[in-house]
Amino acid sequence: MLFDQRSHTEVNSSSKIKNHFKMAKWGEGDPRWIVEERPDATNVNNWHWTERDASIWSKERIKNLFVGAEFATQDASFKITEVEKCEGEASANNRKGKLIFFYEWVLVFKLEGKLEGSNESHNGTIKISNLSEENEIHEIDIQSSIEGDGTDCDSLRKIMQKEGKDFIRDLLKQYVESLEVEFSKGMILPPKDGVHTDKIKNLSTGFNKVSMQPVISNSNNSKENLDTATLKIKEKFQCRARELFEALTRIEMVMAFTRSEVELNPVPGGSFKLFGGNIIGTFEEIIPGEKIVQKWRYKQWPSGHFSTVTMTFTEKSDHTELNVKQTGVPRSELDVTKQNWERYYWNSIKQTFGFGAFLP
């Protein structure tokens, strides 16, 4: 998976501490690394990535917000009568006190409209195809239509287009805000001493959109006689090996740290596309929590040229060590490739999931 543009495996079982059982210490010497006995079987110190499915709740909330909702202008009145389509999913996720909300919905509503002073109602629809955490409310595409011909229908269409969208966006905003409020409950637990710190953050209303400018290679755009080199990287993360592996293979977690849309199929032969297509490739080998091998290329490289990226995960007593070996990197791109791994992968993963430092 991998870099240059700023959009289920199981939840780590180590985060689920069984009632009345004492787990072993991990990271002796720092109490924040000790998995404690907790009678409520909760996520001690908010350390692990935990997830709550909000899909069923969201469908009901969307229905309650929209069905029966009415708005009026000086010239017309409208009423949403039915949810015709509500497809998608939503979840709330916690990692070390940081809340991240994922949601993606395609919505279609049935609509009735009536001109002021008229007793005749006209049917229509409202379509929303990109309600997700990737888009701000004002960026959401709202399409409306009114069935039929004639001046009344034309007038209703114009009014809906001009004045109805703000009303719909307000309802969508209410959904997002209530999702965050409802699914924040119980996700951020008080630490052992009962004191929260100001470092607990909520990353709920979409990810920062970072535009990464492509690096223009000075190398000849040809695979023939291409001078390549091998890049070796060693990086430490304050998490378990399984958690780091999931951060690189679970699509919602990859979306979180890349802050972009992701195409990802983490199975042998499966493909991936990240950072607006700047990075593409396929998985050659994948061993959960232990190893990932990829054919990997940056789009500025000579056409058709792929490197081979091998990642190995080694869990230590108080951290996980990641060793990356990348063969076949164009020599002229070696330094910038290393910098981009550091900036857009390791630093972003640590910052997003709290894998870089202990909570104070």
From TrEMBL:
Biological process per Gene Ontology, one example term: protein folding
Instruction: List residues of the Activator of Hsp90 ATPase AHSA1-like N-terminal domain.
Output: 51-185
Provide a Gene Ontology MF annotation, just one. Answer: protein-folding chaperone binding
User: Which organism is the protein's source?
Assistant: Aquatica leii
- State a single Pfam family of this protein: Aha1_N
Protein family per UniProt? Belongs to the AHA1 family.
Source domain of life: Eukaryota
The record, for SUPFAM superfamilies, names: Activator of Hsp90 ATPase, Aha1 (SSF103111), Bet v1-like (SSF55961)
CC per GO annotation: cytosol
Q: What name goes with this protein?
A: Activator of Hsp90 ATPase AHSA1-like N-terminal domain-containing protein
